[in-house]
């Protein structure tokens, strides 16, 4: 059995992507000296090094990597060793130009960046297996090796290829999945617009068409592309497992990045030995620490709650957004430790030393262009010391209060063309509900809708347009057995093939919610509606309304105006021992808070009025005890009540009663007892 934490790493992971090949060897000595000064415990090496390791077909140069690994080992630094299969060398493409991916419009990408890969291509697969084998044979027993880092961020920058070899592979995938082409015809509803297929040979990827193509085909192509990338990951993983038994294998995820919507991380989480994630602050005007918390919670959840590792984040600004602000003083530590609070066994960065050349030279790093007489470096050294003092919490698990349902397949389906409104954005609702739960100081586990939910008093489904019968049965049983469920609009509409469930909407959830929806009535941009009810006066909705007809549910809030005036906007249905809430419009944060307050009351979750907004409090517990993280994202000092006394690990001070958390600071208390 492979291990599930980095081999030989007795501390939290602290370090980053280390790209020594970008620097003369004289710099390497300085690198390891500074790594020791900062308390670096692990670095990721060789992720983009294929062209250096195999400069010509079948010719290898491992000398430089031997020297790097040796130097790191001598200095007590563990290595997360990359398989460089995200960037095949130029000679590979010269010999196999058809391995370059093709867009839906038929344009073939060129060499000269990274990630230009057709994952169905047999020559790519063979070459990737070969370099992986060579690396594993050479380094399996290397004393510095802590874990393997396969590829880099599957799914970006190319999420699917539409070439002829993908077409052939897609047909094989369809034959395996469906058996006969008639089953495909039925699943995709090809009777519509005369799209019927007589044989698998006629089926192609969903390439550019004059107008909207078949949604079932498009949805299945997402599944196929995801499965194809996973085949390649598993092939490399199996080689590594065979040649380096026990050494854990990972690939770095990007769980909460909306641009990376092509990977079903529930499935990937089952294939890796350790879940790892990359997270960067998206500066679109929203509270970045909320998105960070969400990413960390989602990462922990796809690994079934087990400890995971933050493999990349940034010390300061990144360089791939239109505008890339620097991090404020102290923000890096708040970011890093928030990931640790939510289950990460460390904090690693892209990258160790800031590049002078190439596409990422304006991306921050642990060692900036300005060297060590810089704020970033001083904060890096400080963070290293902080992480060192937290080593005891390794293996503990983050405690969650509620579950939020999340399903990439539903998201893929909802994002297909020609829906009632393009403003009904699944990801937007997930973010909004998460933010409302965060502001109520509730820690979230994400859950697949078909998994056991009985541990959670409250389950929220912000957007589950696609819902299987199994998921609907699961939610019904959850409520009947005493759970409280909150469902937002346009959920439970279609099955796994994007076919509308039979009967009135929402077909999968009618009986759970105790209502039917006669019509969707999306609003135009800028339009909004007012709601009334016990505490709903003054609240409003936008984007979406519906003609809801209660069939057992009680009306809580009602539409005052708009086409749905007089219809229920928010309902509550008692079912068995539990209750199911439904909201049929897009509520803002105030409305979501009012809704969640009532649902939390049903669920028996007490409000946390004792905690200020943006003071994040999260607990990890397990073998070595219970740890309370308090992260003050505000500019004013705060106090956090402690249930028991304890020792604050970053300052070494005793803590009891009300813990002082200075503006912008982090405190981690190991609770007594
Ligand atoms: C990640 C990637 C790194 C680096 C980083 C910059 O997505 O894995 O190699 O490009 O972004 O933010």
From TrEMBL:
Keywords: Glycosidase, Hydrolase, Metal-binding, Zinc. Zn(2+) binds at residues 118, 161, 163, 166. It catalyses: Hydrolysis of terminal non-reducing beta-D-galactose residues in beta-D-galactosides. Residues 614-671 form the Beta-galactosidase C-terminal domain. One of its GO terms (molecular function) is metal ion binding. GO terms for biological process: galactose metabolic process. The active site is at residues 153, 312. The keyword Hydrolase applies. The keyword Isomerase does not apply. Residues 17-389 form the Glycoside hydrolase family 42 N-terminal domain. Its EC number is 3.2.1.23. Pfam families: Glyco_hydro_42, Glyco_hydro_42C, Glyco_hydro_42M. Substrate binds at residues 114, 152, 320. Belongs to the glycosyl hydrolase 42 family. This is Beta-galactosidase. It comes from Streptomyces humidus. The lineage of its organism: Bacteria, Bacillati, Actinomycetota, Actinomycetes, Kitasatosporales.
């Amino acid at each position: 059995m492979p291990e599930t934490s980095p081999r030989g790493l007795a501390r939290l992971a602290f370090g980053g992507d280390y790209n020594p090949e970008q620097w003369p060897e004289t710099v390497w000595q300085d690198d390891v000296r500074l790594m020791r000064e900062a308390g670096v415990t692990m670095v990721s090496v060789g992720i983009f090094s294929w062209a250096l390791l195999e400069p010509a077909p079948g010719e290898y140069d491992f000398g430089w990597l031997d020297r790097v690994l040796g130097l790191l080992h001598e200095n007590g630094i563990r290595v997360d060793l990359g398989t460089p299969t995200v960037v095949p060398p130029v000679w590979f493409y010269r010999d196999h130009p058809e391995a370059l991916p093709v867009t839906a419009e038929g344009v073939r990408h060129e060499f000269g960046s990274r990630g230009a890969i057709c994952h169905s291509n047999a020559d790519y697969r063979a070459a990737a297996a070969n370099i992986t084998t060579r690396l594993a044979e050479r380094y399996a027993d290397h004393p510095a090796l802590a874990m393997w880092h396969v590829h880099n961020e599957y799914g970006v920058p190319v999420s699917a290829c539409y070439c002829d070899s993908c077409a052939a592979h897609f047909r094989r995938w369809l034959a395996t999945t469906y058996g006969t082409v008639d089953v495909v015809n039925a699943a995709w509803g090809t009777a519509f617009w005369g799209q019927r297929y007589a044989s698998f040979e006629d089926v192609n990827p969903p390439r550019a068409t004059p107008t909207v193509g078949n949604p079932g085909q498009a949805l299945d192509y997402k599944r196929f592309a995801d499965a194809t990338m996973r085949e390649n990951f598993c092939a490399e993983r199996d080689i590594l497992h065979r040649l380096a038994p026990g050494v854990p294998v990972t690939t770095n995820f990007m769980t909460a990045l909306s641009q990376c919507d092509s990977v079903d991380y529930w499935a990937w989480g089952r294939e890796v030995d350790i879940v790892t994630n990359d997270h960067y602050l998206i500066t679109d005007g929203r509270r970045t620490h909320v998105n960070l918390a969400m990413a960390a919670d989602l990462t922990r959840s796809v690994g079934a709650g087990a400890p995971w590792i933050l493999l990349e984040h940034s010390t300061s600004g990144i360089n791939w957004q239109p505008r890339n602000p620097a991090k404020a003083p102290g923000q890096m530590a708040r970011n890093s430790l928030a990931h640790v609070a939510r289950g990460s066994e460390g904090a690693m960065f892209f990258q160790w030393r800031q590049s002078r050349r190439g596409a990422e030279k304006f991306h921050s790093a642990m060692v900036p262009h300005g060297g060590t007489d810089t704020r970033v470096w001083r904060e890096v050294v400080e963070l290293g010391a902080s992480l060192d003092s937290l080593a005891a919490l390794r293996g503990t698990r983050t405690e969650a209060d509620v579950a939020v349902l999340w399903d990439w397949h539903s998201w893929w389906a909802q994002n297909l063309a020609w829906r009632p409104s393009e403003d009904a954005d699944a990801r937007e609702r997930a973010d909004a509900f998460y933010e409302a739960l965060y502001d109520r100081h509730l820690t979230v586990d994400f859950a697949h809708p078909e998994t056991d939910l009985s541990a959670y008093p409250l389950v929220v489904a912000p957007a589950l347009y696609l819902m299987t019968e199994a998921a609907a049965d699961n939610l019904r049983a959850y409520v009947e057995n005493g759970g409280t469920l909150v469902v937002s609009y346009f959920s439970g509409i279609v099955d796994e093939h994007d076919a509308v469930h039979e009967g009135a909407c929402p077909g999968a959830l009618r009986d759970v919610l105790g209502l039917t929806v006669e019509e969707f009535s999306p609003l135009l941009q800028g339009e909004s509606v007012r709601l009334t009810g016990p505490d709903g006066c003054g609240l409003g909705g936008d984007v979406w309304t519906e003609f809801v007809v209660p069939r057992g549910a009680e009306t809580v809030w009602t539409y005052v105006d708009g086409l749905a005036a007089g219809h229920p906007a928010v309902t509550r249905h008692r079912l068995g021992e539990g209750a199911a809430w439904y909201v049929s419009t897009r509520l803002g944060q105030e409305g979501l808070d009012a809704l969640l307050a009532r649902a939390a009351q049903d669920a028996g979750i007490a409000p946390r009025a004792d905690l200020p907004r943006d003071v994040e409090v999260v607990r990890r517990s397990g073998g070595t005890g219970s740890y309370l993280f308090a992260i003050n994202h505000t500019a004013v000092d705060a106090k956090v009540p402690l249930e028991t006394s304890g020792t604050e690990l970053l300052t070494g001070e005793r803590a009891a009663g009300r813990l002082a958390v200075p503006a912008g600071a982090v405190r981690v208390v190991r609770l007594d007892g």
